[in-house]
């Protein structure tokens, strides 16, 4: 790609590059949404199973191991989901940093993302959706 920001060919190539990065960001957002959906659905099923066990008149030696298994399964799902969400945060942060470094001079379009997190290294990891598995997983005994 030419470094002359004045040609139409450069502007078209820069727009295409921005669309490619934008599509990768949309993909990361979709993956993040799927991970949160799976987390909440699975934890909801476990919570319902736990509630069903509590409401039954089962002997303690039967109910307690089953309840513990449900709690540990919930904790495991929360940890796995947190790792996936952090991976998505890393990928998004890398895409935004890559764009900031490689943004063509000829690009005259809008920002690559509507609102980017602050530039501090810790910011992408301290989002609400990354705390959801911590809160859900923290309820296990």
Automatic annotation (TrEMBL):
Transmembrane ranges, per UniProt, are 36-54, 66-91
Q: Which domain of life is it from?
A: Bacteria
Record has Membrane as a keyword: yes
- Key word Transmembrane helix present: yes
- Keywords from the UniProt entry: Membrane, Transmembrane, Transmembrane helix
Designated name of the protein: Uncharacterized protein
Protein source organism? Paraburkholderia humisilvae
């Amino acid at each position: 790609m030419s470094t002359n920001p004045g040609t139409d060919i450069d502007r078209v190539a820069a727009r295409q590059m921005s669309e490619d990065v934008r599509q990768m960001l949309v993909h990361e957002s979709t993956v993040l949404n799927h991970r949160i959906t799976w987390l909440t659905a699975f934890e909801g099923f476990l919570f319902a199973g736990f509630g069903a066990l509590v409401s039954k008149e089962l002997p303690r030696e039967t109910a307690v191991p089953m309840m513990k298994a449900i709690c540990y399964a919930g904790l495991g799902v929360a940890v796995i989901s947190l790792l996936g969400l952090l991976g998505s945060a890393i990928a998004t942060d890398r895409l935004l940093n890559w764009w900031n470094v490689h943004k063509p001079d000829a690009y005259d379009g809008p920002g690559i993302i509507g609102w980017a997190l602050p530039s501090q290294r810790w910011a992408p990891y301290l989002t609400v959706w990354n705390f959801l598995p911590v809160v859900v997983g923290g309820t296990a005994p």
